[in-house]
Amino acid sequence: MKYLMLLFTLSLFVCTLSAQEDFSDKVKVGDQLMIVKPASLSYQSINVPRKNFIIKRGGIPNVSTLNNSIVTITKISGKDNPMITFKRSNGKKFFKAYRTLTAELNTAINIGEMEVYDQ
Asked: Which domain holds residue 100?
């Protein structure tokens, strides 16, 4: 029974690893994404500056302003899990202090923090 349970758990783990989709070929510079409210309390794959850094730059550390923001990709770097740099599509700054932020593309889309925005 132990071996059967171990085999089931291992096969489930392998299936979830292979279910990760790769978006590096589907997204290019200039495409738009939408930042979605995270499932947890904070964003895991979007690199949001810490609260004290936002305050030091004269910004307002309200993370809820990121929800449903439309962003434009300005730079893609890396092959396996590409890091993207993005800015707001409406030209405003993030937290009234940062022009751009970064995120791990595949992780952000797979866990539901970002979506490809179709107009």
From this structure: 22-116
Number of domains composing the chain: 1
Detail the DSSP E strand segments found in the chain: 32-35, 46-47, 69-77, 83-88, 100-104, 114-116
Task: Provide the H-helix boundaries in the chain.
Answer: 2-18, 51-56, 105-110
Q: Which of 70, 56, 67, 68 is nearest to 98 (CA)?
A: 56
Token output for 113? 């923090």
HSE, CB side, 13 Å, CA atoms: give it for residue 109: 19
Show the tokens assigned to 35. Answer: 């930042």
Residue 69 · residue 35 · CB < 8 Å: yes
14 within domain boundaries:
no
Residues 94 and 56: beta-carbon distance below 8 Å: no
Note the pTM of the prediction, 2 decimals. Answer: 0.77
In this structure, is residue 89 part of a structural domain? yes
Residue 66: count other Cβ atoms within 10 Å of its Cβ: 20
| Segment 68-110, tens digit of pLDDT | 999 999 999 988 789 999 999 999 999 999 999 999 999 999 9
